Amino acid sequence: MDKTKLTKELSRITETDDIFKQSDIAHIFIHHHKVVQSHLLPGLKVDVKEFDDHIEVNTVVEKDTRIEKPVHMCFGMIPENGIQKMVINIDIRENASVSFLAHCAFPNAVDIQHIMDGTIKVGKNASYRYLEKHVHGSYGGVKVYPHATIHLLEKAHFYSEFELIKGRAGLIDINYEATCDKESVLEMVARISGKGDDLINIKEIAHLVGEKARGFLSSRVAATGNTKAEVYSKLTASAAYARGHVDCTEIIKDNGVVSAIPVVEVNHPKAHITHEAALGSVDSKQLQTLMARGLSEEKSTDLIIQGLLS
Amino acid sequence: MKNLLEVKNLSLSLNGKPILKNINMEIWEGYVHAIVGPNGAGKSTLASTIMGLEGYRNFKGSIHFKGENISKLSIDERARMGITFGWQEPARYEGLLIKDFLKAAAKDKNDDFIFEQLDRVGLDPDDYANRAVDKTLSGGERKKVELASILAMDPDLVLLDEPDSGIDVETLDKMFEVIKEQKSKRRTILLITHSLAVLKQADHAFMFCNGEILRKAETKKVIPYFKNNCIPCKHKNIPDEEGVKLG
Q: What is the predicted ipTM?
């Protein structure tokens, strides 16, 4: 398939056809280890190195650049088999602001690995948002390994959200570790629905090392069928007035198994971290309320899970 | 009078303790009824048993709706026949939008119809349709959403458990308005209450005490006894046979 056809196919699957008509929306489409389509804006620099076994993407948002509309990134593979390995370096410089919407599409996957090793630096007083949406097929043959090391400088804002609701998760292995300097704010959210014999591992760690740094780690996992999920969320605080919260809510259905391990560690007397975790089957009162409106138990459960993951 | 619901010789024990004792009652179609009595009398247990809620299914006797024995039916089967239940403290749902919560119940899934139901309970659809049914709603707002969901379902029989619990005066007035409107449409409502204000909305009342129905009568005849003897309950739900002369 040539680049035009691949772009069309990826945009169709990710429902992003309309972005090409808008010159104020930056985008970059990567199929396997090749860039098939891109459009950049002033202040947004993307340097790509294509190799046979991986692709390296170095992104810089220059100082004081504020990109108003989300930058669309599409990573995908149309074939049934293969490995997509990406090395991604993102540097958001002082006072810059950007939001990325990353679409990851593996619609025909039978045996595909999507490996991402990322390094993200968010500069002083800069803002970075990253929403990663996965579209997988119904077979479950995708193994996804998003790993990233993150550093927030003073007063930086970081928000990331990993969403996989459509199709089978396959194997998800998230591993993020962040260091947060003075007065920076970090928020990491994962919403994943597991079906069949999916395996979900989420490991999110954040260290609040600067005064008044704030961090929030949130996970929402629905494990249905024979899905097994493990969520490890660790938040440490070692500076005065650092504040953080870990929130894990995971639902099981059928033979699903979930374990959540929230770890909070404070080693400064003026720091404060809290956590809450709720694991189990669907709440009985929620379920019975919907059933009392005429929905079957199955439909009621699906609606509750859909809400939780939305 | 046509019976919409009949409860026959119903007894239920929970943890070995008898809670409902040989209950017999008929709910007439097109009327507002109330089960009234002090806290702990077994009113909510009876409503939960009628709806078939979890933990209230192992009873003796039978429940008939529209002439059919529904004792073995599940909650959703009873609901699809036309019964629903409004909880004293309704459940909250993370992420589930109010409009989707209403649509789940509604026969008509059209947005305009859904928004109309929100409007009927005094919630502006522009402000509420896309909010979640979660903990950010106040108790009163959540009760109104519950009521809107029931209106969207348009059932034949509504069981409302302590409808005035935890709500402000304005919400209570709105709830009474809706009850009156339903009554004018000849819908059947069963109010579970220990409140005089709620009791006054009913045409007929069942005086409930210590797991038993002491008497059924027109509401105006129940009120004086209830006012004098049940607020507060003077005998901890043990009825004084002499004191219960209604009719």
A: 0.93
* Residue A10 near residue A36 (C-beta atoms within 8 A): yes
Amino acid at B61: G
Q: Is the dihedral of CA B70, B76, B77, B81 positive or negative?
A: positive
The C-alpha of B247 sits at a distance from chain A's nearest C-alpha, in angstroms, of 35
Alpha carbon distance A247, B155 (integer Å): 38
The number of beta carbons lying within 10 Å of the beta carbon of residue B168 is 13
Confidence of residue B234 (pLDDT cuts 50, 70, 90): low
CA-CA distance, B174 to B197, in Å (whole number)?
13
A:B CB pairs within 8 Å: 71
Cα-Cα-Cα-Cα torsion B110, B113, B115, B120, nearest 10 degrees, comes to -160
**Cα separation, B44 vs B42, whole angstroms:** 6
Hey, are the CB atoms on B153 and A285 less than 8 Å from each other? no
DSSP H helical ranges for chain B: 43-51, 75-81, 98-105, 111-120, 125-128, 139-153, 169-184, 196-199, 219-229
**How many domains in chain A?**
1
Which pLDDT tens digit goes with each residue over B51-85?
Answer: 999 999 999 999 999 999 999 999 999 999 999 99
Report the share of chain B in percent with pLDDT over 70: 94
Which domains does chain B carry?
Answer: 3-88+155-243 (3.40.50.300)
CB B61 within 8 A of CB B22: yes
Q: Which residues from chain A sit within 8 angstroms of residue B132, using beta carbons?
A: 307
The pTM for the full model equals 0.83
Average pLDDT over residues A146-175: 94
pLDDT in tens, A163-201: 998 788 899 999 999 999 999 999 999 999 999 999 999
Coil, strand, or helix at residue B220?
Answer: helix
Looking up tokens 């979660």 gives B134
Least CB–CB distance from A308: residue in B51, B84, B94: B94
Q: Which residues of A touch B100 (CB under 8 A)?
A: 303, 307
Classify B116 as helix, strand or coil. Answer: helix
